[in-house]
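User: Hey, quick favor. My workstation is busy. Could you predict this chain's structure for me?
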Amino acid sequence: MAVSSNPPVVIVGGSGFLGSSLARHLTAAGRSVIVLSRNRPGNCGLSQHVAWDARTVGDWRHALNGAAGVVNLVGRTVDCIKTPDHRDEILRSRVESVNVLGAAMRSVESPPPVWVQMSTAHIYGDPPAVECNEESSFGYGLAPDVGRAWEDAFRSSVLPSQRSVILRTSFVVGRDRGSGGGALSRLLTLVKLGLGGTVGSGKQGMSWIHEKDMNRLFERALTDDGMAGAFIASSPNPVSQREFMRTLRRAVRMPIGLPAFTWMVRIGAPLLMRTDPELALYGRYVISKRLKEEGFQFSFPNLADALSDLLSVEPSHML
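Assistant: No problem, here it is.
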């Protein structure tokens, strides 16, 4: 079998905001990219698309054969009302996709030598003030339980021959390019309506990372043979919810930010935003001890600089 001079990176679940951003980043760096997803990506540059169902091994497995690496981003959004059906989907989408990827890799002649798996910084729970790192205890509740199950499935599925990296991702702030834009686009809408004030106590932690730094972490995980194990993917400067929204208002020159009291959020989030009020009322402060020890330098360590970069050339559909 001929070996490609530019073996592809396979991005699994790559049709959303984060996958589309990573695909553009890697193709701009000269890498060949295959996006494995249910739906064809709308804006991933020069990436090839292969369809799969995220649950059964099919012909899509051939995309893995001879690949340089795989990045798995699959997981149903948690930005929803947590009905029993949604809770089940949130868990199953993560665990089943990891399990079927592991089975597919065992069925091909030349599986990728590295598997980068996205996880969640929410695995540490919602401590009100404690600063968490990779050595901190995991939290309690739906999100930490899902995070543990997700990572356990990954450790059971990864091949002994593969280098494995887990990135426990925080809130990725990035530009909306027609692929959802992450949660930042929704926050911007609230801010521009004068509603971007303190939510609840305002003390809850907002750990965040610029999409460029997130992409650099994915790329480093794919290419750095010394990188293995679990890392927190978050900037070294988390802020409170109050400070995050104040900085965002300054970035778009909005002087007004009406507060939302806890009772208002508990009523309004499910009725108006169709989401879980706890996403706004709780948070966490996470900082990666391991990335600091390994000398990773963030391009955007501070929130004001990150937002200035993202909003300086603001796409019209974020206005």
